[in-house]
């Protein structure tokens, strides 16, 4: 088998939308920008387009590198590229930074044209259905009337699911990975604790910290540390860190002693330097609010009866944040709605983060399904 090749150097693009959008909250955003990247080539009839939706802390940079010295490829670089499961020799792949993000798309840290200051606390809440609407507008701009597939993991999987319900004619395949039809009470609780860490940080200033020349780093750091624990499995953490001590002996204090403490603090510090706290608040609220069955008398079967796409649903055995049972709820509802669905439950020690990992069985399932889509396009 030919080894996959790197997609190489990539660059971001920006789409400016002057037409207003009415968000689910009722707020009207008169103007917004979306930053996105594309990989591969759109074919003559635009039938090979793939939309990749990012998770909570993701963005438009899904594959490739920005320079030859760039040590950080896109967040799904193992999945997207020539010869990879999402093969850019066959597909035209789009990754974008969602509205409300902090990597170039209009969000809380962007300048509000009405005031000349960052939006901050004035930026409205956005829901998954709002992201799908802006993604559809970008597809229209690019001349794509129907996606061969919409793919996403975690919060990205929720976007893919929403696409299949809200715009059923515009998506042929829907790939929902490590996701859920809605959050459990426990998940909402985790999100609220993370938000409280940010909201109670003295440097938060009600969300308008930009004007105070500060950042709520402590709160965001704690929020990320908490979130990161939920993305890992107990077995995975145990195998990687166990109860290892940095110095080999107890120090009898509250500084970093265990390797797991060092790891979490490093992850928290790193994240607090590159992500916006207001965006984190927005993203977790979008997670909490997602519930496509809500407008169908809480009947998920009725909601998914709107879909026309074929589905691939993937879960991971040690993912307790979005457990296999939640994926099976989606599968069960799709079968009851008489929709075509394939399901895979992957053995993995990586917990929720498994959807980002280069796991051979997982990649084989993705590759086989994507090859099937490519054959449909070629016919």
TrEMBL record:
The active site of this protein is located at: 154, 319, 352
Q: Which SUPFAM superfamilies match?
A: alpha/beta-Hydrolases
Catalyzed reactions per annotation: L-homoserine + succinyl-CoA = O-succinyl-L-homoserine + CoA
From the UniProt record, list the coiled-coil ranges: none
AB hydrolase-1 domain residues: 48-355
- The protein's Enzyme Commission number: 2.3.1.46
Q: What is its main location?
A: cytoplasm
Q: In which pathway does it act?
A: Amino-acid biosynthesis; L-methionine biosynthesis via de novo pathway; O-succinyl-L-homoserine from L-homoserine: step 1/1
**InterPro entries recorded:** AB_hydrolase_1, AB_hydrolase_fold, HAT_MetX-like
Q: Which residues are tagged with the site Important for acyl-CoA specificity?
A: 321
Name the GO terms of the biological process aspect.
Answer: homoserine metabolic process; methionine biosynthetic process
Q: Name one GO molecular function term.
A: homoserine O-acetyltransferase activity
Q: Which UniProt keywords apply?
A: Acyltransferase, Amino-acid biosynthesis, Cytoplasm, Methionine biosynthesis, Transferase
Residue positions annotated to bind substrate are 224, 353
Query: Where does it live in the cell?
Result: Cytoplasm
GO cellular component terms attached to this protein's record? cytoplasm
Kindly give the HAMAP family that the UniProt entry links to this protein. Answer: MetX_acyltransf
**UniProt similarity note:** Belongs to the AB hydrolase superfamily. MetX family.
Question: What is the stated purpose of this protein?
Answer: Transfers a succinyl group from succinyl-CoA to L-homoserine, forming succinyl-L-homoserine.
Q: How does it assemble?
A: Homodimer.
Classification via NCBIfam families: homoserO_Ac_trn, PRK00175.1
| Protein's UniProt name | Homoserine O-succinyltransferase
Q: Which organism is it from?
A: Iodobacter ciconiae
Upper taxonomic lineage? Bacteria, Pseudomonadati, Pseudomonadota, Betaproteobacteria, Neisseriales
- Coding gene? metXS
